Amino acid sequence: MCTGAASVRCDVHHYSRRVSLTPLRKPPSLRVRELIRRGAEIALDPRQDWLAELDAATLSGQAQQAVAADPVLAAGTRRTNRSNLLFWAASNVRAPGERVPANEGDAPLAIARDLVRRGLDETALDAYRVGQGVAVRVWTQIACSLTDDTDDLRELLDVSLRSISAFVDDTVAAIAARMRVERGELTRGTHAERREVVTLLLDGAPIARQRAQARLGYALDPTHTAAVVWTDDPDADLHQLDRAADALAAAAGGTPPLSVLASAATRWVWVHGRPDTDRVRAALAGLPTVRVALGSAGPGVDGFRRGHLDALATQRMLAGLSSARRLTSYDEVELVALLTRDPEHADRFVTRVLGDLAAAPTETTEAVRVFLAERCNASRAAERLFVHRNTLLRRLARADRLLPLPLASRPLDVAAALEVLHWRERD
C-alpha cells in the first residue's frame, strides 16, 4: 500500500522538527479519525523490534551514559518508553486526533524521582526527544500501511505528528516540574544531609572526618563493606530494601548500617566488617525481589570510597550480562567486571576464544571452567562437580573438539571467556 505517498514521507522529517512550534489544528475528518484509531490499535500491541529500537535510542549517547550505566535508571527508562507509547496510543483509540494530555503516570514520575536522587537534572529528559524521533518513524510506517490515498495520508500525518510532538512537549514539561518539586524536597531533612556528606566523601572533597562521622552517625575509621541494594521489580515492596540493609548489618556483626536513598528502588549501604554471605543469602530468601552487590572491604575513608565504587561496578556488570544473580560480591567477579566494561568487545572475545563451545550445554562448559579453576586437577574438579572422574574427562574431550584451538594451548583465555559466560548464564 501507500502508493503515491513518497512526497508525504518526504515531509515527515520536516514535520518532526517544526510541528512542536504549532498548536494542533481543527479535528481531522471522520475518515482520517478512523485511520488514526486503527493505527493506534496497532501501536497498542507494539512489535519487539520497535521497543528494542526505542530503548536503544533513549539509552544511547553521551548525555545518557549515567542513565544507561545504572540498572535501575535504565529499567525505569524502558518502562517509561512503554508507558508513553501505550498512553498515546490508548488515547487515540478513545479519541482519535484529539490532543493527548501529559503522561503523569507511575512510570514517568518514578524515573523523575530517581533522576533527581542520582543528582541528574532536566537534561536527562532529552531522551524523550530522542524517543520522539523513533516514534515518528514507526508511526509513519504504520500510517503508510493504512491507506494509499495521498490526501488522507497527508492529513493523517499532519494531525498525528502534531499530536506526538505536543504530547512529548507536555509530558516533558510535567516531568520537569515534578523533578523541581522532588529536588526541593530532597534539599530538606536528614536524607539530604546524609546524601550530601556521602557525596563529598565519594568525591574526595576536603571534609573533616569527625564532622562527617557526626553528620552521618556512622564511624569511618573501621573496616567497611559497601553494598548496592536494589530491585528490578516495579511492583516490589520497597521496604524490603531497608530490611535487606539491616540484614547486611546483622550478618556483619550487628552495628547499625549507613543507608542512603540513591533512588526509590536503590539503597547505597555501608556496614562495619564483612557480612557472612551465607547469612545474607538466607535473609534474601525472604526478600524475593531484592538484589545485593557487595563491594570490597577496606578501612577508613579510602575503604568507604573504594568499596562503594566496587559495588557499583559489580551491579553494572550484572546488568550488562543480564544476570539475575541475587547476591554477588566484587571478589567473585573482579576479573569479569574488567573484561565486560566494553560489552561488545567482551562478546567478541567470548565468541573468538570459545567458538562452538560457547553454545554447548552448561554441563560441558562448567566441566572446563571448574577443571581450569582447580588448576587442571581432574580429581578435584570431578569432586567439586559431583561427577565421576571419567565423566569429567569425557566432557573435557568433547569441549576440546568444540574449541577453535586445543584447551592446552590457551587455558588462560578460555578460563576468562568461560567466566564471562558463567556469570551471564547464572540465575
UniProtKB/TrEMBL annotation:
Source superkingdom: Bacteria
InterPro entries xrefs: CdaR-like_regulators, CdaR_GGDEF, Homeodomain-like_sf, PucR_C-HTH_dom, PucR_C-HTH_sf
Cited Pfam families: GGDEF_2, HTH_30
CdaR GGDEF-like domain location: 208-317
SUPFAM superfamilies: Homeodomain-like (SSF46689)
Domain PucR C-terminal helix-turn-helix, residue spans: 366-418
Family: Belongs to the CdaR family.
UniProt name for this protein: PucR family transcriptional regulator
